[in-house]
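Same chain as my last thread, 215 residues:
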Amino acid sequence: MQNGNDYYTKGKYKEAAETYARALAKNPNYTPGLFNLGNSLYSLKKYDSSRKVMEATEKVAGNKEGKAAANYNIGNSYMAERKWDEAISAYKKTLRNNPADADAKYNLSYAEKMKAQEQQQQKQDKKDDKKDKKEKQDQQNKDNKDKNDDQNKNDPNKDDKDKKEDKQQQPQQQQSNISKQTAEQLLNALQNEEKKLQEKMRKEKGVPVRPDKDW
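reply #2:
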């Protein structure tokens, strides 16, 4: 254990972890050895391995202070990986065993704050992503419209198509004029017939008819 502590103090965490592991091989439930091994692995950024050691430490710890310290270190390993929910849970376990732990209170508050900020950022990212998709769709629609306009403008057969459409419309207009002409002729004929009928009726009733000319 002393050799392991020497390595740890010098920042030689790999050598420290190996030395603590040899000590624990002789006494697997030696709590200080487990703590120091977990801390060495944490310093090597082997967070998952460090947590496993600290979970074992909590089980063999003989008092609440030991359990609180193990959970505190577990919380720190989750904090390093920005796993806020897991860190919050570990710090709460720490405070249940040691309500006076100021460091655990501070870290719990920090983890909750970071979680809230991350959730807010995720909402903003979704909002921005939705806005970007809408702007992209609007731009695509505009590009498609401009493309269609350019195609119509550059279509060499467009004038021929327009002329063809005019030719197709002309017979309809002509037909409409003929129908109107025919209707007027029929109307004039009916009016003439009615005039002749009225003149005939006047003669039959003895109504004098004004001559067209004076003789």
